[in-house]
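Fold sample X.
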Amino acid sequence: MAVKTKRTKKKKTSKNNKQINKKALISVCAVFLVIVTVLTAVLVEKNIRSNLVHLNKDVAYGIDVSHHNGKINWKKVKDEVDFAFIRVGYRGYKDAEIYLDSKAKRNLKNANKYEVPVGVYFYSQAINEDEAEEEAKFLLKNIKDYKISMPVVIDFEYASVNGKDGGRLHDAGLSRKEKTSLINAFCKKVEKAGYTPAVYASSYMFKYFINTRKLDSDIMIWVADYNKNISYSGDYDFWQFSRKGKCKGVSSEYVDTNYWYIEK
């Protein structure tokens, strides 16, 4: 059911190109920090890479959902978005246990039913390569019966504990090399299974805690940066830049949205 595609570098474009603005959706990581973000892409002079699914658009709009969005009306969502990312699971930032998102199977089934192109993600708290591979195996096991045409993502970020960075990933004190290696370990499992791998992190995480030059070349980059301009200077595939938005078919007050650059 997976779709693999070849990527090429996206040509740089002028800052005068139009900024896309759309509505959005809420993504929440169950046992830890709630993430409420709007994700868009602006054609700017950055090292943006073209990507994957052939949607015949320069920029595509999508949403990011988890069980915190409740029961989603995918029939309505279909008319609002070009694709969706669905959280399938997460590792507890305290107990280290792996959990299935309680709405994952329903969301996957109905997104497929209404032919919404789907990608998936797993919120990681892995602190070594074995745990990262365990997370990838769990994710792959739970998506095998569904059509996945967008990337399969490791969500790599620290948990928020009492308003500060915390949780087992943060507290493990891993080196940049160790963090990069475990992301590669996760993504190698994904790619071996025939999917397109990706990593989600903030600009700050990419700049100071991940050696992006040592990430495998086929890994797509999803950057979160809630500022006017993205501070991460490396290649990236999409940019998450704000925190608010709405989407028909999703009852949550705010929802995460994503914009992707698509090669026609």
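Fold sample Y, listed below.
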Amino acid sequence: MYLRLNVEKVLFEKYDINTSKYDMLSNIIFESFKGNNPINIKHCIFFTSRKTLLNEFNHFEGNLNIFQPAIDISDTALEKGKNQLWNI
């Protein structure tokens, strides 16, 4: 999380990105390195690939965390699962 936020901060400051218009890291990267010159393309590919690795690590770490609550599961889905488990 720290790496992601730090990258966002540096790109915002260095390229004067409009934070109300570009609020997702991928959009920030594309806006920071727009254009068809080879250096911008190289930087865009570099940062996008690193963003993908960060996302994968965050998902993997979340899957290992057995104490993380399942906040995205609705009450009806939990009730249905409980009924199936207990054959109610």
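Sample Y note: The chain has a mean pLDDT of 79.
Also: The two ends are 42 Å apart (CA to CA).
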